[in-house]
């Protein structure tokens, strides 16, 4: 994994010949697949750590798949080859920029969505928990408090 991460780091900042760059991208993809197969087949952790990781999941088959997904995403991000996707896929898509302004009264508190998945956007409805579980992300809400009452 260390070697793969270093290759990915080198690819990001260098001015490579297109053919060599394509070859290096292919190497990163193959290395990612090899890592995924190794994690799925053998696991990276000791048996005790694997048992602990599996016990935190709902089924035994979830832990290896989650680890593979997380490692593959990490390598794509490090290499700079991750596809650029829209973060916001649901809210006010025709607007050039989504801006929300709120005035909070004394003692008032609001919880705002940062995952763009909430059905009550701009307020958080907890949808980020499902998103985090599916993707391995760690997004959470923004909690804002108004001035304290005296």
- The radius of gyration is 21 Å
pLDDT < 50 stretches: 43-65
> Which class best fits the helix and strand makeup?
mainly alpha
CATH class of the domain at 94-149, please?
Alpha Beta
Please indicate the percent range of residues in DSSP E strands (runs of 2 or more).
5-15%
Residue share in helix: 40-55%
Biggest sheet, spatial arrangement of strands: 1-2
CATH architecture of the domain at 94-149: 3-Layer(aba) Sandwich
Q: What characterizes the major β-sheet?
A: 2 strands, antiparallel
Distance between the ends: 55 Å
- Stated plainly, the CATH topology of the domain at 94-149 is called Ribosomal Protein L9, domain 1
Order of helices and strands: HHHHEHE
Number of strands: 2
User: Averaging pLDDT over every residue, what do you get?
Assistant: 72
Count of discrete alpha- or pi-helical segments spanning 4 or more residues: 5
Inertia-based shape: elongated
What is the CATH homology-level superfamily of the domain at 94-149? CDGSH iron-sulfur domain, mitoNEET-type
Which structural traits does this protein have?
single chain, 150 residues, mainly alpha, Ribosomal Protein L9, domain 1, two-stranded antiparallel sheet, 5 helices, 48% helix, 5% strand, elongated, 2Fe-2S, transmembrane helix, MitoNEET_CISD, CISD1/2
């Amino acid at each position: 994994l260390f070697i793969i991460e270093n290759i990915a780091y080198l690819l990001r900042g260098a001015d490579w010949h297109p053919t060599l760059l394509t070859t290096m991208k292919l190497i990163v993809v193959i290395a990612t697949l090899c890592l995924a197969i190794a994690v799925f087949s053998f696991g990276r952790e000791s048996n005790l750590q694997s048992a602990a990781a599996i016990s935190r999941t709902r089924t035994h088959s979830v832990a290896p798949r989650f680890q593979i997904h997380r490692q593959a995403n990490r390598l794509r991000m490090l290499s700079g080859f991750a596809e650029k996707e829209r973060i916001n896929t649901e809210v006010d898509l025709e607007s050039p920029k989504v801006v929300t302004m709120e005035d909070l009264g004394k003692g008032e508190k609001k919880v705002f969505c940062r995952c763009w998945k909430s059905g009550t956007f701009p307020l958080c409805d907890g949808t980020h928990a499902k998103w985090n579980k599916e993707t391995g992300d760690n997004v959470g809400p923004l909690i804002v408090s108004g001035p304290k009452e005296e």
